[in-house]
Amino acid sequence: MKTITDLIGSGWAFPPTIDPQGGVALTRATSEIEQAIRIILLTPLGQRVMRPTFGCRIHELVFAPNNSTTAAQAIRYVEEALAMWEPRIQVTEITAVVDPHQDGRMLIHINYFIKSTNDPRSLVFPFYLIPEE
User: Fold this and answer.
1) Which of 14, 22, 58, 72 could form a disulfide with 35 if both were Cys (CB 3.0 to 4.6 A apart)?
2) Phi and psi of 73, rounded to 5°?
3) Residue 40 falls inside a structural domain
4) CB within 8 A of 31, min separation 6: which ones?
C-alpha cells in the first residue's frame, strides 16, 4: 500500500537548510506541497532565467492600492499561477481581504485539496503592498 509520501514525494526544504546530520534538509508529504505553493507565489515572473514564465503575477500589484479591485486581481493571479505550476492540487476557493491589523497587507486565503488523497488543506498567504505616500 502506498503512503502519502509515496504519492506526493519529497524535495529540498525551503529555504534550503542543513539537517542535524549535516546534509540538505528535506521536506516530505503535505509540507512539501505547501512549500511549493509558497515558492510559486513568492517568485515574480521572469525571475528564473531558465524558466521565465514560472511564478506569479501578483508582484505586479505591489504598488496598487489595498482595496477590493486589487484583491480581485490578486485572486486571479494566484489562481492562474497555481493552476499552471502546481498540478498536485485542486484549488477550491481563494479569497483576499485587507488585513485590519496591518496597513499595506492583504491576506490571501487559499483552500485546496491534494488530488491524490482528496485531503483538504488551506493556506493563508500574506501579500505586502507599498502604501501610497
Assistant:
1) 14
2) -65, -40
3) yes
4) none
Total structural domains within the chain: 1
Helix (H), strand (E) at residue 107: strand 105-114
Whether residue 133 is contained in a domain is answered as no
Could you give the C-alpha distances from 62 to 13, 14, 32, 105, 119, in angstroms and in order? 27, 23, 27, 10, 32
How many residues does the structure list for the chain? 133
What is the rounded CA–CA span in Å between residue 4 and residue 13? 17
Cis? peptide before 100, omega within 30° of 0: no
Asked whether residue 90 is domain-assigned, the answer is: yes
CATH number of the structural domain spanning residue 66:
3.10.450.40
Range of the domain at 120: 4-128
Read off the pLDDT of residues 24-70 as tens digits, 9 standing for 90 and up: 777 666 688 999 999 999 999 999 999 999 999 999 999 999 999 99
Tell whether the torsion through CA atoms of 106, 62, 92 and 39 is positive or negative: negative
Q: How far is CA 76 from the centre of its chain?
A: 13
pTM of the model: 0.79
